[in-house]
Amino acid sequence: MSPTDWPPELARAEVSLPQDGGAVWFGQLAALPEPAALPPGPLLLFLHGSSGLNEQTRSYQRWLSGALGLATLAPDSLARAARPRYQSPAPREVYEAVHRLRLDEIRAAVAVLPRLPWVDARRVFLAGSSEGAVAVARWRGAEFLGRLIYSWPCEDNYFVDRADNGFAPDCPILNILSGHDPYFSADSPLNRGLPVLGHSGHALRDATRAKLLILPHAPHTLYNLPAARAHTRSFLRELLRDAAGLKG
């Protein structure tokens, strides 16, 4: 599959790629120079929230490449011409139509990543925030070393017909939430009348390799906060060390 055959959310995906000397190449996937100079390395696939790719997602990508040496790829979900748009509260069928498209983005990326010479497909992580994190939690494949779920409590609430989590009990998961999330907390007006916990304690109760972190006064978009970055760094480094040990 050549760049001209990629779906638009991949052709316009934003990539950060570590370079020699600590530099980071950043741009759209379709514009990535070929051939990539570096040997295959680990990658994090990131699904943005409903606001799309922005300076927060780019800061996160550049940080991962600069601080941890991970390449990143963030599909541009809003590049789809017929993608549903919404403003909450919206009908659940609208939300679910979007969630299906976000899962399609993971499928498309899984098909493309093994063809990219700078990606070690055995060392790939899946991450997402808010709307994007729903698909991360629902994904049923085993292609990823671990999952990072930001700002999504993995439970039934106004945003889904049902949580429909797809991770296996032994899947490594880092779930970071705000204690007062304006959308998904128990006291959110959007969840009024629903039996909502506002966190993933119940959803992750049987997940033996999951870590739930609640930041009491964090905003909804929280993956660039110092505490979130510190836990993200530790989570990824531990899994990369484990993967290196298995390869050795």
TrEMBL record:
Molecular function per GO: hydrolase activity
Record keywords: Hydrolase
InterPro entries reported for this sequence: AB_hydrolase_fold
Its EC number(s): 3.1.-.-
Superkingdom, natural source: Bacteria
Protein's UniProt name: Dienelactone hydrolase family protein
